[in-house]
Amino acid sequence: MKKFTPIIAATAISGLVITGLFATGMLEYKNNTVQKKTISIDQITKATSSKPDSLTYIQHMQQGDDYVKKSMTSLAINEYIAANQQEPENAEPYLKIGGLLLEEKNYTKAQEIYQQLLMKDKNNQEASLNLAKTYIMMKNIEKARDLLQTLPDSQTKQYYTGIIAAYFGQYDIAKTNLSAAATITSGSSDIASRAKNILTAFGEYGMNQGSQEIYLKTLLAKSFNQVGEYTLSIPLLFNVVKEKKDYRDAWIILGYAYLNTDDYKNAIDALEEARKLDKNKPETLFFLGLSYSANNQKEVAAQFIADAIDKGFEPKIQAQQKLAEIYMTLKDYEKAAFRYEAVVALNDSDINYYVRPMWIYIEKLNQPAKALILAKKAITKYPNSGMAYNLVGWAQLSLKDYDQAKQYLGKAVEIDSNLAAAYLNLGTLHEKLANIDAAKEYYKTAFRLGEGSSIGDSAADSYNRLLALNPNPVPGQTLTQGISTLGQANVLQPLTITPSAITPTTKPVSQPAPLPSSDFVPKFKLPETTKAPTASIKLEPLSTTP
To answer: Which of 145, 180, 358, 381 is the one with CA 20 to 30 A from 263?
Structure first.
């Protein structure tokens, strides 16, 4: 599939890795089509000397924030770098970049960013707290504790002090600090919620008098998992299972923690230990399925997740979705469609759930009649939705009922004039009817409304393909200006922030894309399958007596 969005450093989508924080990509207009063009750090530096930055600090920061909302991490970082060049002493760009690097699990480079900021402003408490968080993520717990002790009191300090104390078995200190973090009304509600979650471990342990301390450690590890503190959970659980090898629930929670730190081999090993102790536990089977899938053992993964569904895993929608995704990877489209329809049956509260099974029926199984059945269910459920009419129009288009397709797609844009997918399908319809000029206009509209998404990519591809059919295009009818909207992000020179070899990744854009294209797989957001709640694992108290 051709892409006409920027080439992002280290993006898995494009398969290209460009080393360096300032590596990015540009679009070049050549021979009347849009071409991808990689830009190196040297080229960016050279470009700066010939094309001055015309944006202000605030504009760069706003553009960076916009890129973050679109999950375009590298372009966001470039904008924050440009803002830093405008105001080198302002801490905000450092904090923004450090936060993005933490999200990308690039802890070494996040540490460098925060340390650079603290060299400029040693009293910046936010940078110090984020550096302490970074140390925890890097498994340097003692260093995080030592840094926190030098900082003034705050809700964030109390939270991290509390979880570190719990990790080291200093339970009274932990409860004091976590209680303070949980009750600060003017602070972060997220931190307060995390603190309360961990305090519930102490509460649950207290209700089971006579339980062993490893039960408390396992409860704490479970809470650490739930708030994303996996680097604290793993060593705690490792000691628990070392002391009590037959503690099934500890093995499950340990496997879950490894899974969420991308350590799939250790996740599999831990969860297989849990399965030896209880082969019917649905959480064990589901997490094993996720681990084997991430380890590229798809057939094994499919069997485990199917078994988890049969054993009653909840939430079932996550298991059905993940199983469908695996069958897609295996190109077993019949089973994939069946599982995606199961997702719709479990929860049709979002019309985008209908997209993927329809795409399979149309593009992979050549069963557009089944797609039409689903689309009609969608329009019954969502009679006032432009997307619902678009889905029916898409199905009718695949059935070559062009009159019906035109009617439903027209209604779709009448209801929602900003629905990019409907304009793209209208472009396809008019192309099939040999109305090439009209098709190009619809593709241009689809690109404008869906730029940065898979819809925009497909619209650009279709437009350029039609453009290539005309060797002498009319000036002004290309997408030269429309597609390349990176602005100053492509001509930035690294001046102040200078960590080397940073390769932040970009998350895939999640957007519904009901497009009848043989090389196109629609992307849309469904529940996160790697974040199944560990709350579903009920821990049995361990008595102090045999």
So the answer is: 145
